[in-house]
Structure formats: C-alpha cells, structure tokens
Specification:
alpha/beta, Rossmann fold, five-stranded parallel sheet, 10 helices
Length: about 250
C-alpha cells in the first residue's frame, strides 16, 4: 500500500535548499577566524544531540548557522541624524527664503542669536542686525553672520529643551552651527546667566573650545600691560556683560 504523500513536501524541500544556500553564502562572507569559530560551535552543539537525531539534523542543516543581520544601534530620527546631509540646512534656507545677513545702513554687524528678548533688543538698540538662529537652518545662517551670541537664558520656543538630555538633536545642531561659524573665523559668544546655567547642555557650552564665555554683570578683565585694547573689538562683550543676570 502506497503511503500518502505530504502535500507541502516539495515546497518544504525547496525552502530548505534555499535556506541552506543562503546560510552557506552568509558564512562565506565572514572572516576566516569567525567561520572556524562558527563551525566549531555548531559541531559541539550537534554532537550533544542523541545519535538518532544527529543524522537528520546534518542532512537538514548542511552548513554552519547563518549570521543574523546586524541590528542598527539607533533607529528613527536619531539614526537619520548620525549621517546628516551637510547641505541640508542651506537647501532648507533656500526653500524658505535666504536670511539677510548684510550690515545695517549704520554699519551694524549681522549677529546670529539664540537669545532672550532683552538681549535681542539690546543688540538692535546698539545698531546691529539681529539674525535669529533656528533649528533646520542654523548651520547655514551661522556660516554667514559676523558674530554669534548664545544666551543660556534664551533657550525657549523652538530651542526649548536643547540644554537637557531630551534635546540632544537640538543641541547637536547648535554645536554644529557654532563649529561652522568658528571655522570661518567668526566669534561665538556664550552669555552665562539665568537659572539654567547648571543644566547639562549649558555646562557643555561653557566649556566649548570654540566659544568665548561672557558672564552677565561681571566686570571686564583688566588688559595686560602688553595688550593693546584696540587690537580686538569688545563692543559685543561689553554689551552682554551689561545685561541683567536673568532675562526679564
């Protein structure tokens, strides 16, 4: 009497052969040391099986186990930020409208700012062009302004949370903008003031090598006898020092 055939036997056989071929191909892509390690590990595991089971397992496997696909370390928006397009900020600014960074009619400089309203008002009153630095176009703008001012008491609105662990993406964009400005010889001033001066991101900014820290309410350090005060413009620094120790 002929035994009934299993309906999916042929399909199962094809699937096993396909998996076997894929496994062999994956193992061959590994370095020789890892291939030997996999074979030794697979052999030990196989020898621990009961003898009646070893033969069918050998026929089914036919090769060392295939390596599983690597799991990315980060996913979603965090993964996208790892290798960000360096021209993305410029393209976004071009789409939204290129920001005016020219000098004012009176000769005031274009100052890129992440700052509270009182700092913006003080800069405008001094005749400077206040250019907001915002997420998305921060790098493109920072590359063209003549100075950058980052107020530790001005992280609100679109920059809210950038000084905390939850705002790492925002903080990284700001640091990229400061680095881009510094790379073109632009001074980045960090104004130390406000209750958030001890937040994680604030401490990092105060220790940044590409930033010059100014403390609100502090006196200007006296010039050394070998220094010529005319060698560098201290107008912005003096303006920031004169600001209140917390945003009003």
């Amino acid at each position: 009497m002929t035994s009934p055939s299993f309906p999916g036997r042929a399909a199962l056989g094809r699937a096993v052969r396909t998996a076997r071929t894929a496994a062999r191909g994956a193992v061959r892509t590994l370095p020789s040391e890892q291939q030997a390690l996999l074979r030794r590990a697979g052999g030990r595991a196989l020898r621990e099986l009961p003898p009646p089971v070893q033969a069918p397992v050998r026929r089914l496997a036919g090769a060392a186990p295939a390596r599983l696909p690597a799991v990315p370390a980060v996913t979603g928006r965090a993964a996208a930020a790892v290798d960000a397009d360096p021209r993305a900020a410029a393209r976004l600014e071009a789409a939204l409208g290129v920001v005016d960074v020219s000098r004012t009619p009176s000769g005031g400089r274009a100052v890129g700012v992440v700052a509270a309203d009182d700092i913006r008002a003080a800069l405008a009153s001094a005749g400077h062009r206040v250019v907001p630095i915002v997420p998305g176009t921060a790098v493109a703008v920072a590359e063209r302004v003549e100075a950058v001012v980052v107020d530790l008491d001005g992280f609100a609105g679109v920059w809210d949370g950038a000084l905390d662990a939850t705002g790492v993406a925002l903080f990284r964009e700001l640091r990229a903008a400061m680095a881009a400005a510094h790379g073109r010889g632009t001074t980045c001033w960090v104004l130390s003031r406000g209750p958030g001066r001890h937040r994680l991101g604030a401490l990092a900014l105060l220790r940044a090598e590409d930033a010059v820290v100014v403390t609100a309410g502090a006196d200007r350090a006296p010039a050394h006898l070998t220094e010529d005060p005319g060698d560098a413009s201290l107008g912005l620094a003096d303006l920031l020092r004169a600001c209140p120790e917390a945003a009003s």
